[in-house]
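quick one before i forget lol
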Amino acid sequence: MNKNLNEIPIFFAVDDGYIPFLAVAMQSLVEHSSKENYYNIRILYTNICEENKEKIIKYEKENIKIQFVLVNDYIDKIKDKLYTRDYYTKTTYFRLFIPEIFTQYDKALYLDSDIVFLSDVADLYNSQMGDNLVAGIPDGAVQNIDIFKDYVEKVVGISSYKNYFNAGILLMNLKELREFKFQEKFLYLLETVKFTVAQDQDYLNRLCKGRVTLLKKEWNKMPIPGDEIKEEDIKLIHYNLAYKPWHFDDILYQKYFWKYAKETEFLETIQKIKENYTEEDKKIDRENSKRLLEIAQKEANCVGDDRFNRR
């Protein structure tokens, strides 16, 4: 590493199934990188084949380092306590252990792999966050769906749904998280409270509330219409939930995904994934989305509501 460059620590967490989409994210990251920065990328995993690792390592450049970090030993100790739903895997929890595993860093980015960059990720890393625990972007789905607004305020315990952030694009103050004893508190909360809607994201919001820096939506634009953001101002697109261009034809901003997918060696693989995604699969996606709303509504209905002064 050239010591004159600014180091940008970046973490992803994937399994073999998401390697093609990680490649798309990497392609876009590299194209928007700057020679002034050193991008130190670590990919947390428990099971990825060597062939896929080699394909991702090809994105290395003089100022871009990519390492695969096996976390089996660490996760095995608590894997039975980690629960998921629908299409999620336990990799979604890996971000919560970054502060204690990588003590050499005071600050780092965690990024989901279902994204494309339209700007230099270093600008996101350089966001000011003071002594707050995390910096994130208000979750687009929560901001637009009333049931989710009620859920995060009543069940997760956030004072305003406007403060509820999406955990897929996260600037982490690792130093403050360690001093806060975040991991110890998370493991305790995991034993006592169960969030079934957004799991690790709900835990992060519950634990970090009051110490969150909210960033501009341009850094985590989901394919949801309605936000007053000009397309030319978008810096990062996040194809989260069921908004997958590799499953559906009518996803907002899908042109950016396919632009970078065409530049990877996974294009044919991704196209086959889309071709093989059946109408039954799509029906299951729609049912899962409906069921998620029903779960959020049911849990919100089970909690008293003291948000308003009612007589």
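fyi Strands lie at 6-13, 37-45, 64-70, 108-111, 115-117, 134-138, 165-172, 212-214, 236-238.
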